[in-house]
Amino acid sequence: MRKIHVIPQKQKRNTLIALLIVAILFTIATIQTEYQPLSFFMNMENFWEFLLVDLFPPQLADPPTIVEGIVQTISMAIAASLLSCVFSLILAFLGSRTTAPFQPLCKIIRFLASLQRNIPSMIWTFILIMAFGIGSVVGALALFITTCGFLIRSFIETIDEVGAESLEALQSVGASRLAIITQVIIPASLPGFLSWLLYSLEVNIRSSTLVGAVGGGGIGLIMMGYIKQFRYHSAMGVILLIAAVVIIVDLLTNYLRKKVLA
To answer: Rounded to two decimals, what is the model's pTM?
Structure first.
C-alpha cells in the first residue's frame, strides 16, 4: 500500500504563522510606500503604450560608438576581475586561519573584505567620480574594489576547506609554510579559485553596465545618454545588445566552470 504522508500539526501552525507575518509585512510596506497594486494593474495600458510605441522597434543609432562601448565595458570587467584576483589571492593566504602568519591578521583582512563587499559598486563609483571624475578607469576601480571584497572571502573559504589530514602530514615531517601552500593548498584549491574568478567575471559584466550608467564609462554611459535625450528606440537597442552580451558571457562562464570542476 502507498503511504500517505501527513503534515504534522506543528509544521502546519508554523507555516500559517509565517504566511501571516509575510502578509502583515506586505501590508505595512504597502502603507508606508503608498504602493497600490490594484492601481498599478489598472494603469497597465500606459506601460504597454510606452513599451510598444516609445521603445519598439529598437534601433542601433551609431554602431561604431556602441561597439566601442561594449568593448570598453567588457574590458572593464576583465581588468577588474583579473587584477582583483591577484590581490585577493595574496590577501586570502594572509587572511585564512590555515595559512596566516599570525591570527590577528585574519580578522583585519576579513573585516576589510566585508567592508569592500557590502558597499555596492555603484556607491564606490559615486565616491570615485567625486574624487577623479567620470570615465572607464573609475568604473574599473569601483568593480575592482567590490570584486576584491568578494574574492577575498571566497578564496579564504576555499583555502579553509582543504583537508586537515594532508596539512598535518606535511607539518609532522617538518615541511615549511611555503611548501605546504605550494604542494597542498594551491593544487587542492585551484579549481575553486578558477570557478570563483569566472563567477566574478560574469557578475562584473552585469555590474559594469550599471557602473557605467552612473558615470563609469562604457556602454552604460551611452545608454544613459540616449535615455536623457529621450531617444528610447536607441536606448532599447542598446539594452537588448547588453542582454545578448550578458547571456553569451553567462553561457561561456558556465561552460568553463563545468570544465574546471569536472
So the answer is: 0.74
